[in-house]
Amino acid sequence: MNIKIKDSMLPSGERGKVTADPLNSPTLPSRYYTDESIYRQEMTHIHRKAWTYIGHVGDVPETGYYFTDTVGEQPIVVVRGGDDVVRCFYNVCPHRGHQLLEGAGKLKAKGISCPYHAWMFHLDGRLGVARLTEHVKDFDKSQFGLKEIRIAFAAGLIFATLDPDANDFADEMEGFVENIEHFLPAAKDFIVAERLHYDIKANWKTVVDNFSEAYHIPICHPQLSKVLEQEMEELKAERRWTFNRFKSKEGFPGFELTPGSPYYAWQAWPHFCALSLPGSNNLIVLRMAPDGVGRCAERVDIYTPKGEEDNPKLGAVRDLFMHMFNIEDIAIVESVQRGLASMGYDQGRYICDKEDSWFTEYQLHWLHMQVLEALGDAA
Ligand code: FES
Ligand SMILES: [Fe+2]
User: Fold this and answer.
1) How many A from CA of 358 to the centre of ligand 2?
2) Which of 85, 99, 337, 373 could form an S-S bond across to 202 if both were Cys, CB 3.0 to 4.6 Å?
3) Pairwise CA distance, residues 107 & 65, whole Å
4) 145 alpha carbon to ligand 1 midpoint, in Å?
5) What is the pTM of this model?
């Protein structure tokens, strides 16, 4: 996994010091989920530095299409230019700071017009029209373009980093694109069939932790247990991403499956979680945008090939996901978040074995090592 962790980065709690060996380590102390100052450090060292999932090229299919989002608590906008290039900018006007765009859709004008004093920006970010600035001494339009943000593409998915000095996506995420394209070759042409928003009363890591282990599945998701074989076919843990491959069972009435159909799960640092469930051609991406130490804005994007948005098989997958296990998971993580704030709890254990069996909490530890590495000696 190649995480550069030094002894000084490993914190201690009631059960002792966290270690680089999941079989022999207490879990991350609960203050990492409740302490405002650690949250602020994460914002600086994680969310404003990491490559973060924001959407899909299908969201900006033609010139003038845009969508807005938030990365590291910073409003951003993604837009496709007249030159067919997709760009990302801070969603702020360089005049006096008004937000430029809201939501998503197609621009009515040829450029981006600020709602406050109507400065107009070309889709490549250059300032076009700025009313009455001929009266302003030494006003240089070229100095007032939109501030651009680096983006990268992976099987049609768009990732952004606010850090101008971040390593290139291809280096950080080596092998990730190839892996998705190998198992889901059509993903780059998918479109979003549905986008769901959940305001969860839990730290972003509480939600990602829960996604990253199957130990709870037989207990908390009885219907999902009828869909998935417990044995994991493959667990791959790279520096910044992981991949799991499972096989399906026969399903249940209303969700019949051919036993042995594949099922995939990906995780990428810091809070990209994705699934491709058996039963239809789909990619379900969850991302947990932090929104304060005890809250996160989960967004669930359900992708499918064009023309299959209304396929009843996709509807069955969506219902399984949305009405069963995502609802079950939200109740779990909100309970865990309350527990993390309890004076009766600080650290537990990672439930793992040497064989990386289906129940392993190895990926929880993988995530926590990255949090500690990113915070360095800061926390
Ligand atoms: S703040 Fe945008 S034009 Fe003034
Ligand atoms: Fe779950």
Assistant:
1) 14
2) 337
3) 6
4) 12
5) 0.95
3-state secondary structure the chain: CCCCCCHHHCCEECCEECCCCHHHCECCCCHHHHCHHHHHHHHHHHHCCCCEEEEEHHHCCCCCEEEEEEECCEEEEEEECCCCCEEEEECCCCCCCCCCCCCEEECCCCCEECCCCCCEECCCCCEEECCCHHHCCCCCHHHHCCCEEEEEEECCEEEEECCCCCCCHHHHCCCHHHHHHHHCCCHHHEEEEEEEEEEECCCHHHHHHHHCCCCCHHHHCHHHHCCEEEEEEEEEECCCEEEEEEEECCEECCEECCCCCEEEEEEECCCEEEEECCCCCCEEEEEEEECCCCCEEEEEEEEEECCCCCCHHHHHHHHHHHHHHHHHHHHHHHHHHHHHCCCCCCCCECCCCCCCCCCCCHHHHHHHHHHHHHHCCCC
Ligand nearest to the CA of 333: 2
Residue 346 Cα, ligand 2 centroid: separation in angstroms? 22
Which residue CA neighbors atom 4 of ligand 1 most closely?
117
Which residue do the tokens 């509480």 mark? Answer: 206
Q: Which atom of ligand 1 lies nearest, measured to the CA of 118?
A: 3
> How far, in Å, is the centroid of ligand 2 from the Cα of 321?
10
Residue range(s) in the chain whose domain bears CATH number 3.90.380.10: 7-48+186-375
CATH superfamily of 7-48+186-375: Naphthalene 1,2-dioxygenase Alpha Subunit; Chain A, domain 1 (3.90.380.10)
Q: Which two tokens stand for residue 279?
A: 């039963």
Ligand 1 atom closest to the CA of 93, numbered from 1: 2
CATH superfamily of 52-171: Rieske [2Fe-2S] iron-sulphur domain (2.102.10.10)
294-327: pLDDT as tens digits: 999 999 999 999 999 898 888 888 888 887 778 8
Partnered with residue 53 across adjacent β-strands are: 159
Q: pLDDT by residue (tens digit) across 33-87? A: 999 999 999 999 999 999 999 999 999 999 999 999 999 999 999 999 999 999 9
Among residues of the chain, what percentage have pLDDT more than 90?
80
Ligand nearest to the CA of 220: 2
Residue ranges, comma separated, of all CATH 2.102.10.10 domains in the chain are: 52-171
